[in-house]
Amino acid sequence: MPTGQRRISPSRSWLGAIALLGGAALYWGWPEVEVEAAPEVAPITPAPVAEVMVAWNQPDAGLTHEVRRVVRSAIAKARSRGVDEGGCHVSVLVQELGVPGALVELDADRRVRPASNLKVATTAVALALLGAHANFETRFESETLPDRGVLRGDLVVRAGGDPLYREGLEGECAPLLASWVQDLRDAGVRSVAGDVVLDVGCYADPVPAPGWPSQNQHWKGYCALAGGFSANGGCVSILVEPSRVGRPARVRVHPLGHGAGLDVDVMTGPKGSELDVKANVNADPIRVWGRIPADVLEWDTRHAHRDPVELFASVLGHALRDGGVQVGGTIRRERHAVGDHVLATLKTPVVSVLSAINTHSNNAVADQLFFKVGADVAGSGDRGGGSRAIMGALVDLGLDPAGYQQVDGSGLSRDNRLSARQLVCLLDAAVAADDEGAQAFMGSLALSGISGTLADRMTGTVAERRVRAKTGFIGGTSALSGVAITEEDRLLVFSILVEYPVRAGLNSEVWKPMQDSICEALVRRG
Questions:
Q1: Three-class HEC string of 262-311
Q2: Residues with Cβ within 8 Å of residue 489, at least 6 apart in sequence
Q3: Averaged pLDDT, 11-28
Q4: What percent of the chain stands above pLDDT 90?
Q5: End-to-end CA distance of the chain, in Å?
Q6: Other beta carbons less than 10 A from residue 492's beta carbon
Q7: Buried b (16+ CB within 10 A) or exposed e, 337-369
Q8: Dihedral of CA 188/191/194/197: which sign?
Q9: pLDDT value, residue 303
Q10: Nearest Cα to 16, choosing from 472, 433, 483, 523?
Q11: What confidence tens digit (pLDDT) does each residue in 433-483 have?
Q12: DSSP 52
């Protein structure tokens, strides 16, 4: 059996495919966004199982020829923009779901930077190792039980790696904490005489990963840090709404209880004027200043907080006060605090964050999941633990882990390495699993022409609404990996990874169109 391939019972994998296709509204509909007056996706009937009982696929000469043609054309276009052809490397692997044997294979074992395609590996392995029903669990504990509403000692908060982030809440965390605080009150706690102790346990201190962007970018939301505790995915969200021209704009800063004062000076400019809003969230007070045109409905941004554990502490303190639990001491952090009694547990389903990671490419949420996998599987909630857990999963899948290197969960680091073959194997395992995890995983991927980072891609083509995939981009790297459904109603798992000399505009002008054209060729297969 070639390196990286594994045998899956065709009947079992196609039970999963039938489940996927039979629920077309779930997988190929619009779970992340509402599209007004959009036509329904017609139900898809898969080929009879007997027709796909293939022991081993052979290369598809026609499809391979078309993919090679598209790749050659893209490289020629890159050369016309002054890029040395020798510096451009395109890896492609296409395989039918659950059926070993590559249909298309171009330099598929080359280890390259995956950029955000690494999120596919992070989420696929997390589901495989933790299961579809896994939770981030953050616990309130204590050495003693409350007495007449008073907890005499410290209230220990045990870290579980929860990013405390939900799409649609505009960065707010209060709705996520309210029931947990109420459970604490239901356990008899009205006041804490001691401190609130944030026990970070085996989780690493929040620091950038090796190979991350330079320090002058660390304030940006895509560089938000991860740790044992976090709030709003380690970010402060700023939302600005204009008012009348010449009047102050309305500025909201989330999450509530972020722990700093506010210094706001944003004015409303004329319609069509320049949008120029700036902020500094790692100061006290938080400063927001600039101008917003009157014809902009709302403008929002996310800025990385200097320390997600500190942000969580402030947000939790606010939630406790708001929920009627008084704290006599301070909120501090330590490791391995003693807490014999569990008072209340905040459980956040892992599947609830998959869309944030795969559809909207949230880096910090991906890193939180990476750390959780390390904590739960390897006993170490850091980059080393996450990497060891994932390498073990690769071996369990029968995949050669040689050359695989993962230092974060997001793909932001330039030190990450994997091959198209490794990524396709992980995708195939995740989708063909025929369980709730496969459903959650597929539903979390962006849909071509409809949602997330694929909302404006493949529109008006045969591939629109037929590709579920993850995009990826950092300077010199472009990637697209996922699942395409052909016009014959077959599921093809694919990975397209590109490394090239850094040149402004090359990704949008050359590599994205190339990837989209390859997806169109996959959909037309047969």
A1: EEEEEEEECCCCCCEEEEECCCCCEEEEEEEECCCCCEEEEEECCCHHHH
A2: 21, 44, 45, 46, 47
A3: 35
A4: 81
A5: 26
A6: 24
A7: bebeeebbebebebbebbbbbbbebbbbbbbbb
A8: positive
A9: 97
A10: 433
A11: 878 889 999 999 999 999 999 999 999 999 999 999 999 999 999 999 999
A12: G
Is residue 161 within 8 Å of 353, Cβ to Cβ? no
d(CA 427, CA 119): 11
SS3 121: helix
Identify the H or E element spanning 103.
strand 102-106
Could you count the other beta carbons within 10 Å of the beta carbon of residue 103?
Answer: 22
What's the confidence (pLDDT) of residue 346? Answer: 98
Q: pLDDT, tens digit, for every residue of 130-161? A: 999 999 999 999 999 999 999 999 999 999 99
Residue 480: closest CA among 350, 353, 365, 361: 361
Smallest CA-to-CA distance from 464 within 478, 477, 448 is with 448
Does the predicted model carry a pTM greater than 0.85? Answer: yes
Instruction: Give Cα 124 distance to the centre of its chain.
Output: 11
Pairing of strands 155-158, 196-199: parallel
516 alpha carbon, distance to own chain's centre: 21
Residues in the chain, total: 526
DSSP codes of every residue in 383-447: HHHHHHHHHHHHHHTT---TT-B-SSSSS-STT-BB-HHHHHHHHHHHHTT-SHHHHHHHHHSEE
Give the CA count within 13 Å in the CB-facing half-sphere of 250.
Answer: 7
Record the tokens describing residue 521, joined without a space: 């060729």
Q: Are 408 and 370 in contact (CB under 8 A)?
A: yes
Distance CA 270, CA 28 (A): 42
- CB neighbour list of residue 367: distance below 8 Å, 6 or more residues apart: 209, 225, 226, 408, 409, 410
Tokens (6 digits) for 7 = 């045998």
Shortest CA distance to 405 belongs to which of 422, 425, 426? Answer: 422
Task: Evaluate if residue 45 carries a pLDDT over 50.
Answer: no
Where residue 233 falls (left for φ over 0; alpha for ψ -120 to 50; beta otherwise) is left
Angle formed by the axes of helices 61-80 and 512-523, nearest 10°? 160
**Residue of 489, 488, 471 whose CA lies nearest to 480:** 471
| 86 to 27, 75, 79, 381, 501: CA distances (angstroms) | 39, 10, 10, 40, 10
Q: Which two tokens stand for residue 479?
A: 């990637």
Q: Which amino acid is at 346?
A: L
- Res 219: pLDDT: 95
Residue 14's alpha-carbon distances to 94, 143, 167, 440, in angstroms, are: 17, 52, 32, 17
**Which of 123, 20, 34, 113 minimizes the C-alpha distance to 361?**
123
DSSP single-letter state for residue 147: B
What the block records as the tokens of 178 is 């309210």
